[in-house]
Amino acid sequence: MLSSLLSEFKSPFPANADGKRPAMGLETAFVLLSLALYMDPVIEIVFGIRVYNILTQPAYLLTYLVVAYFLYRDRDRTVPFIKNGGLLWLVLFLPLLSTAWSLYPDVTLRRSFALVNNGLFGVYLATRYSLKEFLSLLRYVFIFIVLLSLLFAVAFPWWGLVQEIHVGALRGVFTHKNGAGVRLAIAAIVFLLCYIDRIGSRALNLALFILTSGMTVATQSSTGLGALLLSIAALPFLFIPRGKLSQMMPAIFGTLFVGFVTLLFVVDNADTVLAAFGESSNLTGRATFWPIVIDGIYEKFWIGYGYEAFWAGGFDGPAAILIHLATVKAKFHAHNGFLEMMLSIGFVGTAVFMCSLWSTILNLILKLRESQGVASFFPILFLIQFFAMNMVETSIYSYNNVQWLIFMFITALAVKWEFNRRAQERLRRVPTA
What we know:
Layout: H1 2-8, H2 26-37, H3 43-47, H4 49-73, H5 75-84, H6 87-97, H7 105-128, H8 131-155, H9 157-160, H10 177-196, H11 202-218, H12 222-234, H13 245-268, H14 270-276, H15 286-299, H16 309-312, H17 337-370, H18 377-389, H19 402-429
């Protein structure tokens, strides 16, 4: 096991047919470090918020510049995205466009700039790497993240474990237990798929999947654990006969049925289920918080307040309608990705996002028909986790966030697959001599 672990440090990519691992170049090292940066670094806990800003903001800016260079350098691969991206670009740039009607245009411009660059990183990854290669990159980063989190919990418990509310909950190298939970849930699925698809050492992947699943439970994050359980429950339905869409439909509807039944069970037994995770049936004040947020949405229903503008003015801005809530100081975001999206870009922007999502899902299903390995399961399982998490947290349109980066990678990859499929269809229609 130790030799397997040490061999993983040489390169993020598995060995070739000749048994040799591809060398890790500067570009790959940059990608790995950037992915780790978007994971929510520990430096905020160790050195304090001021040092965090001083060190990470230049790091993010450097990432933006390097990604822009890579997109220009590989413009032959980027141009098809520009021409065929369609809804992808609308989804990505709508928050930036909302500066035009934002109540706080300086805040919207600054934060949407970060969001757009975060998304462009995902687009770059889709142009540069295959899904299996991207899964290998994520696996490599998560190996370090998981082992460092375990080290912090054991050797430095005053950092690795929560010391205030939810005392003893695992935080690891993250700034919050929920941040740890949702990212460890993604890591567990990555290790499980790598184990099944023989990406890297199978023994190591299995051990890391078991370890990471246990650590997800230890975070006491109901969001992370719930998302992990949903994706594991959906996994068996993806092992289906490939080839005909009619054969896939029972599996697709079976997955939806499992999710629907699970949701009904949770709703009908909310007190019991949530109490098991240390939550109350009002979701720690969200049940009283959300209706007032919805009232705020109706005030600017069609185009929203502008990206991040609803909260930008504090109690001197639109969020003043929440001032009477005792819990509002801890909730300067909607704690629901869909509500936050409505606040930022309104019904029109949300409709564009949902249309893009529908197109992405269709392309993922078509790719699932053609693929032989289980790496193609990752986008679907990630989307299940992503939207489950966004029921009680906010990572849709969340800037400098690894979940948003992965979502944009999947969206761009679906565009890439659709473009390649159409190109192949055009070639098949060309008459032979």
